[in-house]
TrEMBL record:
Naturally occurring in which organism (per UniProt): Photorhabdus kayaii
Protein name as it appears in the record: DNA replication terminus site-binding protein
Pfam family, one: Ter
Gene: tus
InterPro entries named in the record: DNA_replication_term_site-bd (IPR008865), Tus_dom1 (IPR036381), Tus_sf (IPR036384)
Annotated keywords: Coiled coil, Cytoplasm, DNA replication, DNA-binding
Coiled coil start-end: 7-34
Amino acid sequence: MSKYLSIEDLNSCFQRQESKLKQLDEQLNSYSLLAAHVFILPDVEKGSEHEPVTKIIVNEETGNDALNIGLNHYQKLFIYHNNQNISSKAAVRLPGVLCFSVNQQQYRSALLLIEEINKLKAELEHIVTVQSGVDKEQRFEFVHSQLHGLITLNAYRTITPLINPDSVRFGWANKNIINKVTKDQILQRLEKSYNAGRAVSPYSREQWATLVAKEIIDIKKLPNDVALKIKRPVKVQPIARVWYAEQQKQVQYACPLPIIAFCVNYGDNQPKIGRLANYDANAIVHRYKPKAKPLELIIPRLHLYREI
């Protein structure tokens, strides 16, 4: 598909997402609220996006104030929705849960709407990352030439609905993303970067080409059967742990947005809701930490390691 048709699809898909999000706001505001808890995290200021996070102070809001904050957050898709000092490179997270007492018809109606919204979010991401055919380095320009100031991560993040949970508790996850890769895969990636002939800040075009050429030589020197891993650190993330007593099952969800819990025909009963504690990296105690194979860092900017 041509880039021009993708632009048309991008705008159409985004406008439908905005419309459905407004519809969700109106629909949930008409439902009976059982409880609402949202946890407000400190702003990430401009220039501090890559600083290590060792402590996070959490402020909790409850009731109607939390409901309003949560529903508004779903619609915060542009930079101008945030304060001017907040980084546009870091999406704002608002963990929490909004609980509603509903009948079966209300639940089905809301669930259908949330599914439509999540489908549009996935479609938007597909248009940008696949359908457009635009290289990763050009995606920012492709999106912002049409939707100036869009925070794509906010536009991609899906909304999580629950039905009749017995408890919703919150915590922090702090893990690395580890992917096994082959020597050929890394060489293809480096050669594509080299052949693109672009400058990557803070390097000039010539400096960048020299750097990537050296990385290609270093990778070619490795044995063909070398065990390579990309071990990318992920900043600490809020999570929700949801318990279902009847099934004796716990499900864990990433929680950058408030979860929506529907209590169907439960009357005034509501799930037990925990609070999100402050995060302190120095106070973490690992119950079990499996022994990992020793790794040697090969290309720092790619977080590429080899097993020793």
